[in-house]
Amino acid sequence: MTKQLKAHFGIALANIIFGLNVPISKALLDNYVDATTLSCLRMVFAAAAFWILSIFTPREKVRPRDLLLLVVASIFGITLNQFSFIQGLSYTTSIDAAIVVTITPVLVMCLAAAFLKEPITGPKVLGVAMGAAGALMIILRNGGVSLSSNNMLGDILCFCSSLSYAIYLTISKPLVARYSSPTVMKWMFLFAAIMVSPMAVPHISSVAWGAMPINGYLLLTFVLLGATFITYLCIGYTLRYLRPTTLSMYNYAQPLVASLAAVALGLDVLGWYKLGAAALIFAGVYLVTKSRARAKPYE
After folding, report:
1. Is residue 147 packed enough to be buried (19+ CB in 10 Å), middle (13-18) or exposed (0-12)?
2. CA distance 86 to 84
3. Is the pLDDT of residue 141 over 70?
4. What are the Cα distances from residue 272, in Å, to 253, 254, 275, 277, 278?
5. How far apart are CA 279 and CA 5, in angstroms?
6. Which has the closest alpha carbon to 18: 89, 107, 91?
7. pLDDT digits (tens, 9 = 90+) for 96-131
């Protein structure tokens, strides 16, 4: 299996987990913890997990100037991204949040063209549009958009999260070309944990942990281990071998995963529109993957 194919499998796995994470995080926010607590827990847990993982991987010395870039990547890729999304999800609906996330590949395509000089080709634009159409077919089929003030605030925060993630994918390309995923992530999450530490302790200590049922702990474990540690490990690896726009296209698989999970649980049926949406998403990913890239490799 080639490294590029492994990267495609890795980012597919990350987005499968992200697709399941939206309703799971929403259940946690509605029943057990507040948004700030969940965000802080994700950053602190991942920082500890990646530093433990680094003990068992080859040590890499990070250049001082790259540490500054890691701080910036941490702000956009973790702190702003996770805080904005979790806070937004606490205000809006899962459907609204899923719709806003579909803007991410468009933002990444524009930023990659501006800063990484990736060409915006016809096939790439068509692929992004096809993927968005497939994702929206599923999302809008499951419910309408709410225009209440709280939902609008949540939607704005989710958009800020998508923009932050798009910036992260663009600026971190040079980092993942020089360092392994565990090295990049241990520093990024360490900086993120330091930034949230003033608010982490009072919020985490205010949760009634003894009153939380086992189901709450299982949901929290999925978010911390699956939707934070495993996903970011995959993203760090795949960024080395895939272009940012290609990687972001897999975001369109998230509503498809959520819909198929509902089918598996007997909460929905597998209709022709789902198969059509899946075909559009996969065709869009293929077009973006095969579109023309920079002639000069990333440095």
Report:
1. exposed
2. 6
3. no
4. 17, 18, 5, 9, 10
5. 20
6. 89
7. 777 777 788 888 998 988 888 888 888 888 888 888
Contact 66, 121 (CB under 8 A): no
DSSP for the chain, please give it. --HHHHHHHHHHHHHHHHHHHHHHHHHHHHHT--HHHHHHHHHHHHHHHHHHHHHTS---PPPHHHHHHHHHHHIIIIIIHHHHHHHHHHHS-HHHHHHHHTTHHHHHHHHHHHHS-----HHHHHHHHHHHHHHHHHHHHT-----SHHHHHHHHHHHHHHHHHHHHHHHTHHHHHHS-HHHHHHHHHHHHHHHHHHHHHHHHHTS-GGG--HHHHHHHHIIIIIIIIIHHHHHHHHHHHS-HHHHHHGGGHHHHHHHHHHHHTTSS---HHHHHHHHHHHHHHHHHHHS---SSPP-
Write out the two tokens for 257: 């995963």
Instruction: Report which residue type is found at 250.
Output: Y
Please state, for a pLDDT cut of 70, what percent of the chain lies above it: 90
Which residue matches tokens 């016809």? 122
* Residue 246 near residue 288 (C-beta atoms within 8 A): yes
Over its C-alpha atoms, the chain yields an Rg (Å, rounded) of 19
Return d(Cα 274, Cα 284) in angstroms, integer: 15
Tokens 């989710």 found at: 158
